[in-house]
Design goal:
It contains four helices and eight strands, in the order ααββββαββαββ. The chain is α+β, with helices and mostly antiparallel strands and 175 residues long. It has one domain: Pnp Oxidase, Chain A (Roll). It starts with a helix and ends with a strand.
Length: 175
């Protein structure tokens, strides 16, 4: 009986030691996203949301920080290659929150009307996309530079916008 137990123990030891340890296992290759190939599936709806929010000037973005919602004002939107973008800095907590959970909601209100936009934000690290954004908002160049490691731009993907008011029914568009 002791001999059988010893053989089983040795077999288990060999089986366990022959597997790769986590450090030896190769990490999956990072997925490369072709940002230039993606554009909004509904450009007219995207343009409507862009015009509305840009006309207001300040809009708010809600993210999640653990189990706590976080909301902050933003003021710059840009459309490039058929996608709507926002900008922030990697050093800011919002960028860390987006890395953990890229699903956000935007909100902007003017008088008795408002729009809410639920979407996923996708970071675009291309220098040319950052440059186009900063060329549209040159006053942001004091904070951001397309060639630095801090500048982060994100485009909206799988967006659902709901236009609401106190006097009319909600209208929902997807882009």
């Amino acid at each position: 009986m002791k001999k059988i137990f010893a053989i089983l123990l040795a077999a288990a030891f060999v089986a366990c030691s022959s597997e790769n340890t986590p450090a030896e296992q190769s990490a999956p290759a990072p997925v490369k996203i072709d940002h230039a190939a993606y554009s909004s599936p509904n450009a007219a709806a995207q343009q409507r949301v862009y015009d509305y929010m840009k006309g207001i000037g300040v809009f708010y973005i809600a993210t999640v920080d653990g189990d706590q919602p976080r909301v902050r004002p933003f003021g710059a939107l840009h459309i490039y290659e058929g996608k709507m973008y926002i900008i922030t800095g990697h050093k800011k907590r919002v960028a860390q929150q987006l890395a953990a959970n890229p699903k956000v909601e935007f909100c902007a209100q003017k008088d008795s009307e408002w729009v809410r936009v639920a979407c996923t934000l996708v970071e675009d690290e291309r220098v040319e996309a950052k440059k186009a954004y900063l060329d549209a908002y040159p006053h942001l160049r004091g904070q951001y530079n397309e060639n630095d490691d801090n500048t982060a731009i994100y485009y909206l993907k799988d967006a659902t916008a709901t236009f609401s008011s106190f006097t009319t029914a909600d209208e929902t568009v997807k882009f």
